[in-house]
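Posting this for the archive.
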Amino acid sequence: MSSELEQFLSGDRSRWSYLYSYPHKTAYRRFAEVVSLRSLWAEEPKDSLYLYTHIPFCASKCSFCNLFSLSRPGQELVDRYLDQLEVQARAVGAATGSAKYSGYAIGGGTPSLLDVPRLERLFSIQSSVFGVEPSHRGSFEASPDTLALEQIQYLSSVGLERLSLGVQTFDPAEARVLGRPRPDSALDALLETVAHADFPVFNLDLIYGTAGQTPESFRASLEKAVSFSPEEIFLYPLYVRPLTALHRRGSGPDLEGERMDSLLEVGRQFLADHGYEQDSLRLFRRKDAIRTESVEYSCQEDGMVGLGVGARSYTRDVHYSTEWAVDRTAVESVLDAYLARSPEAFAQADHGIHLSMDDRKRRFVIKSILKARGLDLVRYAQVFGSQARSDYPDLTELERLGMAQVFEGRFRLTPRGLALSDGIGAWLIGAQVAARMNEYELR
């Protein structure tokens, strides 16, 4: 008789999603009492924080996107946002004090919507307030329809380490389904320019599971992607989420496990044959790529400071952000509230979640095992004073099912386990967090 975990992993995948953080923002709520950021960060280790800056604007909203973003903003709104970003940065910088940052990311939305003068201002805010220079270990998200030669040249000249381009597909029919600009010769020229620019890490994002996609069309996109020799390629399974255009149209991928697994296997095998190794369900890194490293950052243990509307910050015990929204009207409402916020309000946290010890342990486990390196069992015991497999017997069950193994002190998912890691992550969500997520009314 199969276990509950086995039945869950072999059943309906419609509730699976990319568990990029834990707890998910749908578990956040308004705090009963606001919390001073100064007191929140006072006893936190601050020698290896991460800085995330959110640019919530896009030229257009992709049909699959459920991120906090607003399409077609006017330049006046963008400038007002940068003004407020600086107000927030100074309030947060004063509250966090003499913190050190091991890296940063600028995401969205589509940060490449900013022209060079606005990019200069953005980097100036990060540098003047937090001491984070553009040449720090950093990542910048871009879209081909908003990235121009002058931006590429600027980002290369300031020493940006990683440029990530969300291409998603090179197939015109699939691009129409995804709401992406039609791939053409201009895209090839842009990618050639990026490939020859001085970025230590060039990443391309692709999506599998689009309605009408075949193994042959997916393989053709993969062939095109590797022709530009990116150091990294992300393969994202397409999930259809509420309030997205795909969801409203009632169209999207066939989430039959066999089909999604077969497409992933096409991608995994193709990339392995072309010199890429799998780092997680999504990330494939070229084996000969050299990535510069600064101070090691561990998202399981080190904190993050988020700037901008929708940006998440976290300490060991508290995660906080503004509210989350997908619908345009709701996004505009949250953005308006952010733009009206005072410096004093930015020095407080009023929306998020207080983590229990179980939440902290689950976060450590989930964020570890969803990567190929796996969970460091010794480090877990050092941090929490207990054994991971005793705390969470489902880990032992994964071993029994052949989806995980212990190797050199690390609990690691096997290739089959990695293929099902979104489901494994969903299964490991704590009961209280799951209840809050299920109760959340998405706007």
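The mean pLDDT is 92. The chain is about 40% helix and 20% strand.
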